[in-house]
Fold:
Amino acid sequence: MKEIGVIPNWHKSNATLVVDKIKSFFKQRRIPLQIVASDQADFYSSVSLAEQLSDLYAKLELIIVVGGDGTILRVARDLACWNIPVLGINLGHKGFLAEIEVEQMERFLQYIATGQYDFQERMMLEARLQREDQELGRYLALNDIVVARGPFSRNIKVDSFINNDFMESYSGDGVIIATPTGSTAYSLSAGGPIVNPNMELFVITPICPHSLYNRSVIVDGTDTMSLKVDSRQVQVVLTVDGQVRFALEDDDRIMVCRAKQKVKLVCFHENSFYRLLHQKLKP
Structure:
């Protein structure tokens, strides 16, 4: 077994304790471990983790992320190009991306040490932002791409197209385009459906629509979606996984499609999406 990388969110209150337990566990079994120190991985930097940690790429067989869903999203998005399985240990609240909780940690680390684990490949989205004839940026998302109004309480209008065919003009607070993985995040809060994360599709959910029509639309993963913004002098923001933000202008277009990259999330046979769903959503 090559090295196991551990990327903690040191801003979590009990991260140090959990990391110490992980170090002790693998040291006893003589499995090499690489702890990413706080000065090596800056989660608030504009520089991707792949660039910050490029010297580790060839060494690692698996990455353990210690944190909440936000930490896992950043790692998964930035390191998708590495094609290395990621295991999440939850230090947050109701995290759907983390496979295990801290109190279960030792039992599941034993599975890792003995190779009794698998991984699921999760679909990602790619968004291309265009202003007139210029492409301003490309973004990867594991959860969702969101176009929404800024702080002022005024409606915005977002025209949507599927494969160049006009679909709907959303008037309200904005629109969410979510992957199956992201269906249990912002999209769920906005009334969208829960989707098995192994599926290849995306979900379009309006945010507080100024209309009697407020249903989500499920789109095949091979389709391409285009959004055109009509801000009417109101601030509109493009958000990627709730972490990357870009201010939009009138007539900006966002092209969204299934990304070539996928994220490998570690899973175990005794866990299942539906069991996790019951545990996370119960009162």
